[in-house]
Amino acid sequence: MDAALEDAAAAEGHPNLPQARHLLAYFLVRQRRYRAALEQFRQVDGYVDAIPWRYWSGGKISYRLYRARAVWGALLKRR
């Protein structure tokens, strides 16, 4: 994940970067790295039709739940 975060930081302006940031946010939340996930959500906030959210029937809701988990996790764990 650390290498992927570095690659994303170096790929500013790449057309597929928002898609990569969504995947990063998803996996960072799963790893309980909430602050890093929150930063990825900030970079793409407002666009929810990306992988992995589009594969779930409630994609927009899933996106919001993971984003909320990142926010609360960052506040509560201070990690």
Q: What attributes characterize this protein structure?
A:
67% helix, 79 residues, mainly alpha, 4 helices, 0% strand
Description:
- The structure is a single chain.
- This protein is an all-alpha fold.
- The protein has one domain.
- About 65% of the residues lie in helices and about 0% in strands.
- The chain has helices spanning about 1-10, 15-30, 35-45, 60-75.
- The longest helix has 19 residues, at about 60-75.
Short description:
The chain is mainly α.
Number of domains: 1
Please provide the ordered H/E string of secondary-structure elements. Answer: HHHH
- Strand portion: under 5%
Shape call: globular
Q: Kindly state the number of beta strands.
A: 0
Report the uncertain regions. Answer: none
Largest sheet: none
Structural classification: mainly alpha
